[in-house]
């Protein structure tokens, strides 16, 4: 898991000087006020004082629970997976001053005597026993902390010999224990850059002796763990106290932080619960490490340094302990898919297991080719291979789809062929196979398989570069299939297969069929155009609505429009069509779905909904939905 932390702060104060101005001017000048300010200033910075060679030992308690939503693709895109990391450390942290210069101080950080060492990433223990602790957090590992003259953290340095987990822990701790921007002022605000992200923070010295510095993080400007996702809302409570003794030595750091960041859909993007306690125990002079020690790996607090592969960690969490052996045993013992308890959960775990051991994908072939195998089980095995999607899985998929056993059940075989179109990163060899299956089906006049292979070929080509030879060949094949189609049903299937390509040619090839005599063909043309990349496709479908009277075709056109961006001109076009009363009775829900996606469309959308609300015979739930949407749009328009 790549860790990260976010921080940002706001502060302000009013002008109160006028209330005390007269006494100041009327009284004799007093040097004591300036002296007091100078004394306070001298106590503020540096944040902590260090003597070269002196090692300060602290008791460290660190509890950290972080959840990050991982983006998903394919059928699971609407169900993002949460990657969870939990860390609980209890032991000693030592800081020894190695150098002290006018420009700053270098400290050596070590972790020792860890009485508690729990670290879980995606459910997998990173420190299960003492041996793992010695490997990943050895007492001999150290980091250098580079502080500026005020005591602010500038960088953390490691050698190549330090284990990756130690590097991450040390860097994360350093970023929390040492502010990156300190000022000689009673209070200030700053934006800190941490591994979580960029966060606003308000700082203030407390007490006459400025013995305590508090840091209140108020808002993350940017969350690294959220990636490119939009953070629509965040709830942040964060307070850190840095306490010093009378000599200016750091004696305690107390931090509590609760963060919840949500996306536009209301789902959690990042969640964090942090409790950090650092309490002074002792200090003593120690020999300095050898002068030849080198820390050539330099990182600033904002750099993400977690060197455990997050994708691998997420897969292990998704597999939840399932192995390929367990997967094979379950498949072999099941009489059919319905006999597998919790099939959805099983499939998700099984796909992860195959991704973790790609070389074993071919072992599914033994069960697939077994005489008398249940057709549903064969379909399930192909689903697992498609879900895994890597080169080994695709190779096995191709072998099985071309086997005689796959064709033992005609209906099931059609469904099996279509599964090849669900691959998100298909290989060229998969396209060659689909072309071969398509050619064979045509030669054998096997219409169901021909259509299944055409659909899969169109979907396969959509993942290729449009200018690649493979994509052009697939498009040519599907265009020829449309030209050669006889009958409305065949033409409709050919149009939908062609639409799967998402190619620019769709505008030229599919749009003429919007005027076909057959409603079935017109609906298929609308389905095909929904994936055309040009804005012209939207205009063509809006124009088709003007004269379309068939209820089913109107639904197909509205459903296609609902998948495309609609600008102000398009919304006005749609408004005029609705107000003119051209929407077929019973298709109000399709139009409401379009309107719901464009509530920021202003007056055209409001008038569209208004016209719907006045239509007689509309079902109660649909009318209630229309009125609710009207209220939302009306509020945006100012009532």
If you had to describe this structure to a student in words, what would you say it looks like?
This protein has 639 residues and is of the alpha+beta class. The chain is 41% helix and 23% strand. The protein is globular, with a radius of gyration of 33 Å. The model is unreliable at 1-39, 72-78 and 304-308 (pLDDT under 50).
Concise summary:
41% of the residues lie in helices and 23% in strands. It is α+β, with helices and mostly antiparallel strands. Helix 13 (447-461) packs parallel to helix 15, helix 17 packs parallel to helix 19 and helix 21 (588-596) runs parallel beside helix 23.
The overall strand count is 13
The stretches of 5 or more residues where confidence is low (pLDDT under 50) are 1-39, 72-78, 304-308
**End-to-end C-alpha gap:** 47 Å
> Helix count?
23
Rg is: 33 Å
Outline: globular
Helix content: 40-55%
Secondary structure: elements and pairs:
Layout: H1 18-26, H2 31-44, E1 54-70, E2 81-101, E3 104-121, E4 124-125, H3 130-136, E5 143-148, E6 153-158, H4 164-177, E7 187-193, E8 197-206, E9 212-223, E10 231-244, E11 250-263, E12 268-285, E13 297-299, H5 310-319, H6 324-333, H7 343-356, H8 364-368, H9 375-388, H10 391-401, H11 410-419, H12 428-443, H13 447-461, H14 469-484, H15 488-499, H16 506-510, H17 519-529, H18 536-547, H19 551-561, H20 568-579, H21 588-596, H22 603-613, H23 620-636
Features:
single chain, 639 residues, alpha+beta, 13-stranded antiparallel beta sheet, 13 strands
């Amino acid at each position: 898991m790549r860790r990260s932390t976010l921080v940002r702060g706001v502060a302000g104060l009013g002008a109160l000087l006028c209330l005390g101005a007269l006494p100041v001017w009327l009284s004799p000048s007093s040097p004591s006020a300036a002296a007091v300010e100078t004394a306070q200033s001298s106590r503020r910075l540096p944040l902590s004082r260090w003597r070269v060679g002196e090692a300060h030992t602290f008791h460290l308690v660190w509890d950290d629970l972080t959840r990050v939503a991982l983006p998903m693709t394919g059928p699971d895109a609407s169900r993002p997976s949460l990657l969870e990391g939990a860390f609980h450390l209890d032991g000693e942290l030592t800081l020894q001053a190695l150098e002290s210069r006018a420009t700053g101080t270098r400290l050596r950080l070590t972790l020792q005597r860890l009485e508690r060492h729990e670290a879980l990433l995606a459910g997998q223990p990173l420190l299960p026993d003492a041996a793992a602790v010695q490997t990943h957090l050895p007492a001999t590992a150290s980091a250098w902390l580079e502080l500026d003259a005020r005591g602010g953290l500038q960088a953390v340095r490691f050698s190549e010999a330090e284990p990756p987990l130690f590097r991450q822990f040390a860097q994360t701790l350093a970023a929390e224990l040492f502010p990156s921007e300190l000022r000689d002022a009673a209070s200030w605000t700053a934006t800190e850059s941490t591994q979580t992200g960029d966060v606003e923070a308000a700082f203030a010295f407390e007490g006459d002796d400025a013995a305590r510095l508090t840091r209140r993080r108020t808002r993350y400007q940017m969350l690294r763990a959220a990636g490119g996702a939009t953070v629509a809302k965040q709830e942040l409570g964060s307070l850190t106290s840095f306490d010093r003794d009378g000599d200016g030595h750091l004696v305690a750091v107390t931090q509590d932080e609760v963060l919840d960041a949500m996306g536009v859909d209301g789902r959690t993007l990042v969640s964090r619960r942090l409790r950090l306690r650092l309490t002074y125990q002792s200090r003593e002079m120690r020999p300095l490490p050898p002068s030849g020690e080198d820390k050539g790996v330099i990182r600033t607090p904002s750099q993400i340094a977690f060197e455990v592969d997050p994708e691998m960690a997420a897969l292990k969490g998704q597999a939840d302990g399932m192995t390929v052996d367990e997967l094979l045993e379950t498949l072999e013992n099941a009489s059919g898919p319905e006999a597998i308890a919790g099939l959805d959960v099983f499939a998700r775990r099984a796909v992860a297991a195959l991704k973790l051991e790609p070389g074993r994908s071919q072992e599914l072939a033994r069960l697939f080719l077994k005489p008398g195998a249940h057709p549903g089980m064969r379909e399930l095995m192909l689903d697992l291979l498609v879900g895994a999607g890597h080169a080994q899985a695709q190779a096995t998929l191709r072998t099985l789809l071309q086997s005689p056993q796959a064709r033992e059940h005609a209906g099931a075989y059609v469904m099996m062929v279509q599964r090849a179109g669900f691959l998100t990163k298909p290989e060229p060899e998969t396209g060659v196979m689909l072309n071969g299956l398509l050619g064979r089906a045509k030669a054998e006049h096997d219409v169901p398989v021909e259509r299944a292979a055409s659909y899969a070929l169109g979907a396969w080509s959509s993942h290729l570069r449009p200018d690649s030879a493979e994509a052009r060949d697939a498009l040519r094949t599907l265009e020829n299939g449309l030209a050669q189609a006889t009958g409305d049903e065949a033409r409709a299937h050919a149009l939908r297969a062609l639409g799967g390509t998402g190619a620019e040619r769709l505008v030229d090839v599919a749009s003429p069929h919007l005027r076909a005599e057959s409603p079935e063909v017109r609906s298929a043309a609308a389905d095909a155009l929904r994936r055309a990349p040009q804005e012209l496709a939207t205009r063509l479908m809006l124009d088709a609505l003007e004269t379309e009277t068939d209820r089913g075709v109107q639904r197909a056109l509205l459903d296609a429009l609902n998948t495309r961006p609609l600008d102000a001109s398009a919304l006005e076009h749609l408004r005029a069509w609705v107000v003119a009363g051209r929407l077929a009775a019973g298709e109000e829900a399709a139009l409401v779905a379009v309107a719901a996606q464009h509530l920021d469309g202003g007056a055209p959308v409001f008038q569209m909904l208004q016209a719907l609300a006045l239509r007689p015979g509309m079902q109660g739930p649909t009318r209630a939905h229309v009125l609710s949407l009207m209220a939302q749009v009306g509020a945006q328009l100012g009532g």
